[in-house]
Amino acid sequence: MSSDSAPLVVASGRGLYCPPGDFYIDPQRPVQTAVITHAHGDHLRDGSARYILARPGLRIARMRLGRRADVTAVEYGAPVRIGETTVSLHPAGHILGSAQVRIEHGGRVWVVSGDYKRQPDPTCAPFTPLECDVFVSEATFALPVYRWPETAEVIEDIVRWWRFNRERRVASVLFCYALGKAQRVLAELASFTSEPVHVHDTVEALVQVYREAGVTMVPTLRAQSTRTADYAGALVVAPPSTAGTRWMQRFGRYSSGFCSGWMRLRGSRRRQSFDRGFVISDHADWHALLRTFRETGARRILLHHGHTDTLTRLLRERGVDVDALETAHGALP
Amino acid sequence: MRRFGELYDSLDAGGSDDFKLAALAAYFGTAAAADAAWALYLLSGRRMRRIVAPAVLLDWLREESGLPQWLIDESRSTVGDVAETIALLIEPGAIDGAALDLSLATWIEERIAPLRNAEEKEQRESVVRWWRSLPYRECLLVNKLLTGTFRLEVPGFLLTRALARALDVPSTEIACRLATDWQPSETFWENLRGGGRSGW
Description:
The structure holds two protein chains of two kinds.
Chain A: E1 10-12, E2 15-18, E3 23-25, E4 33-35, E5 50-54, H1 58-65, E6 71-74, E7 80-82, E8 85-91, E9 99-105, E10 108-112, E11 134-139, H2 151-167, E12 171-175, H3 181-189, E13 197-199, H4 201-212, E14 220-222, E15 235-238, E16 254-259, H5 266-271, E17 276-278, H6 286-296, E18 300-306, H7 308-317, E19 321-324
Parallel strand pairs in A: 3-4, 4-5, 5-6, 10-11, 11-18, 12-15, 12-16, 13-14, 13-15, 16-17, 18-19
Antiparallel strand pairs in A: 1-2, 2-3, 7-8, 8-9, 9-10
Chain B: H1 2-11, H2 17-30, H3 33-43, H4 54-65, H5 69-79, H6 82-89, H7 97-101, H8 104-112, H9 120-133, H10 136-147, H11 156-167, H12 171-178, H13 186-193
């Protein structure tokens, strides 16, 4: 039995672990029970005996884990008994099916945020602040210089860049992470145009999942033609892993753009070999992190992956009980 | 300033010369003479004199933002540039569309340059008002012009080719004209465009 003060979540070599529930959250190596916050590759890894995740993310998880994996999909907010704990998953607003993990045990509530954002996103349920005693938060963009612009302004900028290239009969290749970011951009574009957008097969497979989930996006065409003329003036959405590969040769001359929160800083934009950087992130910016901490009412904050030192120092100066919780997670911007 | 800002975005990334050339040619082909002259002046590596020291701007930022000094220092260390750090940290207010649409030449000649002889109080009032009424990109540009730190290394051959394309003047002729000691003005631009060739 855990004592009243024993932590409900600790950092371990395999990721975040809940001792009274005997389960891991987004484990980096195979475990018996894995509670998954979302299906990005650095959070959902195969090999575990049993997976528990939010129902809107089930199709994507199946694509990644295969048919034979033992996967339990639960509705947002529905309590599940795991070990001695009651666990529920709640929208994190990061991508389709992303979840915060609420753990209740012995009258205490801990919430693990997973990756999350507070900006509106037409492709997934919005982040829901949950009252808790301890809030375990990601801190990927925990510096005050990370303040996201309005998404509509950025999409307008993307459309302007596309039109400029179209006048030159040149393709505009927009690099976006295949899961989440690409669909968000395609959904946001629907407010500006109904023209079809060419997409890489990896993006299209996930676009289909999003469409089946009821997400409205611009029409998409698989970029399978190898005739350069087919892409003159077109917009193409592709994963960053295709940059510089032979697959790009089909576009002939093209202009490149990259969507990421890291594009907020000039230094990052200049270090990358893209013509334009567009600031669109699926993570909370500095201001959203602080707002979220207030809204949870948590008496203690634990931070993992990102600029934890800066945020820890600031919160301590403001009298908040805060610590860094080290995990091996990287983060998709 | 918005149009120059859009050009700046197209040049200030690690992308292809092809894209930068197209962006430069589009700007120079359509910008008003005074704006084009100032843009060329800045993009060819010529510097404006400093009007306010970066350290002074950082003092104003600290007092305006209420952020602790260590957090500003840490942000600056991550960003690597005072003008940009301020543009990222200042709490934005309502955007002043009219100020945003003022031309580059008007900003430089009628807003920024006259501050050189102003008292610090007046300088601060103007600058802080601009910080709060301009979006990130234009705020960054104003800070760079104020501190004399505008640096955007556009290779000379790109500028020359873009001008040749936009003005329909042979690039060798453009290169000769740019090699002289020139000041940004409508007259200079009209001469470059060929309308006043006799003046060369």
